[in-house]
Amino acid sequence: MSKLTDLLRQVERKDPQLAADLDREYKALSSRRAFGLNFERHHPESIEIPGRKVRKGEKVRILPPRSSLKATDKTLWVVECIERVDGGHVAHLTEHDAHNPETRIVNVDDLVVVAVFRDFIYPGLASIGKVERSEGKPFHTFIKGENFHVLESLTYTHMGKIDVIYIDPPYNTGAKDWKYNNDYVEGDDLYRHSRWLAFMERRLLIAKELMNPEDSTLIVTIDEKEYLRLGLLLEQIFPEARIQMVSSVINPAGSTRTGAFARTDEYVFFVLIGDARPTPAALSDEWRLNPSDKRTTKMLWAMLKRNGTGNKRADRPSMFYPIFVSTDGQRIVSVGDSLSLETSRNSIHPPEGTVACFPINSDGSEGRWQIGQDNLREIIAEGFVRIGRPNEHGFTLSYLKAGEQRKVRQGIYEITGRRNDGSVISETSVQEFIPGTAWRVPSHDSSRHGSNLLKALMPDRKFPFPKSLYAVEDALRFFVQDKPNATVLDFFAGSGTTAHAVMRLNRQDGGRRQCISITNNEVAAEEQKELRKAGLRPGDPEWEQRGICDYITKPRIEAAITGSTSLGTPIKGDYRFVDEFPMSKGIDENAQFFALTYETRTQVSHHKAFRQIAPLLWLRAGAYGACIETEPESGWKLAEVYGVLVDLDTSTAFVEAVKAASGIGMAYIVTDDERRFQAVSRRLPEGVEAVRLYESYLRNFQFRNGV
Questions:
Q1: What is residue 31's predicted lDDT score, i.e. its pLDDT?
Q2: What does pTM read for this prediction?
């Protein structure tokens, strides 16, 4: 290996880029495991970006002539220059990464820009529509674009913020209905498993960065083609997680296969990170494999001190504060302020007649509470905090989590009294339980509650193999019913079932959960042929309007919210099972639709791309209320939950406006001067996060795509 390292240094003196590429491949090979899942990771992915302006230095492919059914030549070319000729433009091309590169002169209209997954990207978003039906609620977000690039965009807006990811990735069967529906590689490709694994690994590695490390869940559905490899891949990417696999019947009639058993089920992997765990749900007897199983549950009290990952004081300093309990353990007297990391808990002197309770771990180290002081004070008043036995650090304390609190407020738990400490008492037993790993539930039938439901929403359109709406809803419920403000992500969104399920869950309990859905705009393979015969190409409006996002995902969500079909008529039929109501009533939710754009570093650094970056700022601030779409002429502007300051000479007015407003949680400050940024930041109210533009954006995307 040392000899290879010496050779790489020699190459670097003559060709730094070649040396960097060789070093990346060397590291990939040297990191291969002696045991476990090994596959080829070096095959680079690329994506064509129809409609993107061709610029000097871009990588491109040459499109086949219009009306031709030939596939696009995969040769990559680099644009050396563009010149105007006879009223049009031609590009001078050089073959990319060739030993003896060819050159071509091609009409710009016959080129398509290509993004290779190790290139730099500077993403933006362009609004392509929205539907609003619930003032005061956040928006569900739908992004049309290559999912790898959109996931990288979310590293700027949602790093560590995602509560649940639900994905239905391509099953790698070789079918050609949609690009992400089983056709990533050809069915007869000898390396199809390696390529599929590399395809999945790249996306899952970024998804892991987006997940809340303290408490989040990844849900992945798959069939028998790749479930073994997927299981190994998940174990390697999430070694610290707890992983379970469920068998779920989605086609009771069975999918006939010659010389084999008819397939009736698929597999669902649940990857539980940190404190994540399924919570008992009110389920019908159909979930019980054993009819004599009559499990019920009672009110569940959880420990107020955090256990598991992220349980150190340093992990969340604001969650380390004293709770003053009377020395007889009969009542909580007050809740103190958070202590800075430099402040010793021994410096706190409890009021007379009280004991200061701190979150101290079993090994004696300082821990943290589960919730903040304001929330704690509110639930103490409602009787949702209980004092337990005394210990060497005061008393043990427990509380009711959000889901249990909801059941008290809704009267599911009948309150029969209160303890001396004010905590509620209930002996009610409810038919809630966590099911086993074999699901045989009629509502999960993908034909009756997937295909037929889509037909009701969009009578003039078809989509192959949609999930049952209720199957997705049930899988999510176990992990978000106690999280009314959860953020859910689906980066293989397809027809939009996950977002639809989240909207229904919100309707059932008044939640404000958000779903971020990512899908490309591929056209079905057979329809591509007809469009090509008509002389159309990707990027043409007539082509794009038949893509999965524009033709299926967007109109499905619009129909679900408004209650009107894609034809503009009231939807016929009712939702069923947990929440039954006419589909024509719609659902009181909001949705914003975007298309991914690709900006240049120069545009961003010279403050020429604010309009494209603005939706990312809105997303990072919570996707709530209005988006500040242009640089404010007055030098600053506030929306409902965030503000933008572009002229630091107006910072005093900006800071005063932030202080006077309620609900502002984030302030974007445009400046190249770190000292001036810090000066403004220090004047902002506590709890307002200051973000420097465009430094934070550019720094976030200073990496090469791919692995």
A1: 61
A2: 0.83
